[in-house]
Design a protein that fits this description.
Helix content: 40-55%
Strand content: under 5%
Number of strands: 0
Mean pLDDT: 82
Radius of gyration: 34 Å
Shape: rod-shaped
Largest sheet: none
Number of helices: 3
Order of helices and strands: HHH
Distance between the termini: 117 Å
Length: about 120
C-alpha cells in the first residue's frame, strides 16, 4: 500500500476570508442614460427642420424646445447644438412659409383686381 498519498493537514485558522457577496445594483440604475448619450429629440428636431418645409417646421420648433429643456435638466446628454440648429431652422421655415402664403394671396388679389380671369 505504498500507492496511497498521505492526507494533507488543514492549516490552522482560515487565512483567506470568504468573499463578500456583491451588492445588487438597483433595477432603475440600468435605465439611466449613460454619459455621452445623444438626446433623441434634438436629432429629431434637426431632421424635421432639414427634411420638412411649410408647417412641418413647427414640429422642429416644438421638439427643439423640448430637447433644450431636457438637456438643461440632464447635462450628461449631448445634442444642444442639434436642438438649437433644429429650432432655428424650424423658425426660418415657418417665417418663409408665412411670407410665401402672403405673397400668393397678394398675387391672387392683384390678379383679381386687374381683371385677369384666366388662372
Amino acid at each position: 500500500m505504498t500507492d496511497q498519498v498521505p492526507p494533507v493537514p488543514a492549516p490552522e485558522g482560515n487565512p483567506v476570508a470568504p468573499a463578500a457577496p456583491a451588492a445588487a445594483q438597483p433595477a432603475y440604475a440600468a435605465a439611466a442614460p449613460a454619459a455621452g448619450t445623444w438626446n433623441v429629440l434634438a436629432i429629431v428636431s434637426l431632421v424635421i427642420a432639414i427634411v420638412g418645409f411649410s408647417w412641418i417646421s413647427l414640429g422642429a420648433v416644438i421638439t427643439g424646445h423640448i430637447a433644450l429643456s431636457q438637456l438643461k435638466q440632464n447635462p450628461q446628454q449631448q445634442g444642444r447644438g442639434l436642438a438649437l440648429a433644429g429650432t432655428i431652422i424650424g423658425y426660418v421655415g415657418i417665417v418663409a412659409t408665412v411670407i410665401w402664403v402672403i405673397a400668393i394671396i397678394g398675387f391672387g388679389l392683384l390678379a383679381a383686381s386687374t381683371g385677369y380671369t384666366t388662372y
